Amino acid sequence: MLAKEVKSGSVVVHDGNPVMIVGMSVQSPSARGAATLYKFRARNVMTRNKVDITLKGTEVLQEADFSRRDVQMMYTDTEFLHVMDKEDFQQYEIPLEDAEEQMPYITEGLEGIRALIYNDACVGIEVPATVELNIAQCDPGVKGNSATSRTKPATMETGLVIQVPEYIKEGERLKVDSRTGQFLSRA
After folding, report:
1. Gene3D superfamilies recorded for this chain (predicted)?
2. Is 66 left (phi over 0), alpha (psi -120 to 50) or beta?
3. Residue 64 and residue 47 in contact, taking contact as beta carbons nearer than 8 Å
4. What is the domain class of 3-63 according to CATH?
5. pLDDT in tens, 113-148
6. If you write DSSP's letter for every residue of 10-37 in order, what string do you get?
7. Which helix (H) or strand (E) holds 95?
8. Is CATH 2.40.50.140 the classification given to domain 130-186?
């Protein structure tokens, strides 16, 4: 695949390692005849290290032997998150440190979790962009402060702490962006 065709979320091979593209920018040439440069921010799928890649638009990147499979969370123990493939019931163990960014958004029965499979091994998981979580603890709003757009911290059922508007009460169900950890709306 040409560098100019690569999109965020693509998994390609760079220096013999599979990397997932997480961001990109385009640098236009400043002189006549100069090439447009594509700068990619990627994450090594195996080691989780960040990688910066700069290529000309006509350079080729090889697509990795990589797939995403719908899975269901089974349980967690002290070392692993255990998930099961919804189609063939294959079970995978993911070390908790490899899934620590996603764990605050995973609840029992969450739909849309996908396992990242590389060479028949699970190397990580993806959660949906938006998840619904219940508020476990939240201070009450102060009467008369509703004219300003002030926020307060709220602890969700998974232990995640996010900033919410003052009118939100304990026990409510909220939509949260799993990419940024920000409050979106009431569910």
Report:
1. 2.30.30.30, Nucleic acid-binding proteins
2. beta
3. no
4. mainly beta
5. 998 888 788 887 888 989 999 999 988 876 665 556
6. -EEEETTEEEEEEEEEEE--SSTTPPPE
7. strand 91-95
8. yes
